[in-house]
Write a structure and sequence with these properties.
Strand order of the largest sheet: 3-2-1-4-5
Order of helices and strands: HEEEHEHE
Mean pLDDT: 77
CATH topology of one domain: Nucleotidyltransferase, domain 5
Strand content: 5-15%
Number of helices: 3
Oligomer: single chain
CATH architecture of one domain: 2-Layer Sandwich
Length: 138
Amino acid sequence: MGMSRSVKGQRSDINVTPYIDILLVLLIIFMVIQPTIQYNLEARVPDKPDEDMPKDVVVQTEAIVISVNPDGTVSINQEPVLMAQLGSRLFEIYSARANKNMFVQADQSLPFGDVIRVIDIAKGAGVGDVGLMTATAQ
């Protein structure tokens, strides 16, 4: 009596298919969500200069430039202003202006937090767009 036995034991494999499905669903969710994350400071790249305009022409604008010096003093268009009065002074300037643009020029040795503090004060005073200026070599 030769009986053949088939060995049917439990399999020790782990079925990874559900884990891969979950991983792919999470990947798709994160890929969809990522472009919609918004940050507080928006950056816009300036347009290319008009090539038809001669290079020696200087366009005059009534730009407001806030300078932050290495010692922490602040000036609006070369006029010194105390940091405590900066918000009220900017509110006076921009309440009568249609152009709400402003530029910030700061020494590169300053911590970035000092520049952000000036930008926050300006935004609270009604400034629309804020541009950052780099120091030019003289």
